[in-house]
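To close the section, here is one more complete example, presented without commentary so you can practise reading it yourself. The ligand is nicotinamide-adenine-dinucleotide.
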Amino acid sequence: MKYPAVANYLNGSFVEDTLPALDVYNPSEGRVISRVPLSTHREVDRAVESAREAFPGWSSTPIKERVQVFYRYKAMLEAHLDELAALITEENGKIASEARAEVLKAAELTEFGCSLPQIVPGEVLEVSRGVECRIERFPLGVVAAITPFNFPNMVPNWSIPNAIALGNCLVLKPSELVPLSAGRIAELLREAGLPEGVLQIVHGGREAVEAICDHPGIQAISFVGSTKVAKIVYRRGTATLKRVLALGGAKNHLIVMPDADLDMTASNVVASMSGCAGQRCMAASVMVAVDKTDHIIRCMVEHAQRMVPGRDIGPVISAEAKARIEGYITEAEAGGAEVLVDGRNARVPGREDGYYLGPTIIDRVRPDMRIAQEEVFGPVLVIIRSRDVDEAIAVENASRYGNAASVFTESGGIARYVMERASAGMVGVNVGVPVPREPFSFGGWNESKFGVGDITGRGSIEFWTRSKKMTTKWNREAGVNWMS
Ligand code: NAD
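Output:
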């Protein structure tokens, strides 16, 4: 085995155990590279116990001191960029440039965490003569983050710097498909000076997640993954009165107008649908081509045909994912859609057992087809033709998801019209992947997010803290009034 068996990280140490375990695969080669333990409620109990012990010390450390750990951690993410990126490629399959971008994004998220002391100082006002009201923010206690396979380093870092810098102790449950990066994150944070018990890692799947949802000692859960599981976690976590922010799946629509810039649009749309092998919750999935856009589609086809699996596009996560995605393509073709670029049966010499698919573009898809409605989560773009922008917006609005939407046009009026009407939490103009960068927050609408607030940036402050409203009267002149 290329890597030793993955271990839970409890109270500052990696813990050997005898739990049942799953194989961890390298998706480029279809080879087993490690094993991941399937934790139970007992491991979650232990994690919560030591997080609880660490909480008084960590939460009473001034925030200016807490963030020093993250300044050092950010420098380490950058210093270990190649190594961390290689680990992502190993377990997730991403090509090197995408894996490096992921680590750099994790560093940027940490940079925001470092800036928290500048933006959480609270508010104070003399509300009446001699009477002062102030608001201060306090951490919640022990909190948890449950993460998906598609960003093994970045998505854990959506929650780690902010939740911890704000004074919480965090239990992380990484995806069992990509458990290696989390262990390295824990090592770097330990080296950066994070005290024992402030971060715990409990590996596993459903049983560990259910134990987190049910645990009375956990105050809040951030979840990122599919809509199916987001609903389970939201319902089960809130049933025990926790705060839950659960980000789910996506079906992102790009509306392409006939006046859109040809090269920029074609290259951005193809990059959006094929980047990270289409396994991004912000990936383009449906292009709504308005009126005369054949010239743009032709150019997109040329771009996609130039892409080489293994060089420009990594594998999808598993053999099951590959079969599922190919099934969607075959079903759409049988239903009368026209496959312009076919990524099925991609072969990469020397990596014949890898789970590769080439970029796939399917035209003449009807909005009622399964491939137009469900999340495919692979490098597949379907094209739905529409007569005008209102028809295109109606197609976008009909989706049950609502993570991202973009419009490609040279008209400011059309851009604004679509931005106002798209039913999505993150919208873009001439941007294939409209991820808001910090201090702006990440979060979708509809079935792409359950709960109040957003997961990154300023929005996360409200989620990871509670406010205390304090009213004081020291001045003897304050007299007697209704506040007395
Ligand atoms: P997933 O829902 O299968 O798994 C996510 C987490 O839930 C994992 O930690 C997994 O162990 C756990 N889990 C899986 N099944 C469970 C069950 N039945 N009960 C309890 N826990 C369970 O998601 P995934 O396949 O790892 O990730 C891909 C999905 O994540 C896609 O749908 C993608 O759109 C979504 N995603 C969304 C965002 C966003 O910001 N909205 C970001 C990244 C990924």
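Once you have examined the tokens, check your reading against these statements. The pocket of nicotinamide-adenine-dinucleotide is lined by residues 146-150, 155, 173, 175-176, 205-206, 209, 224-226, 229, 232, 247-250, 281, 375, 377, 403, 444, 448 (CB under 6 Å). The radius of gyration is 24 Å.
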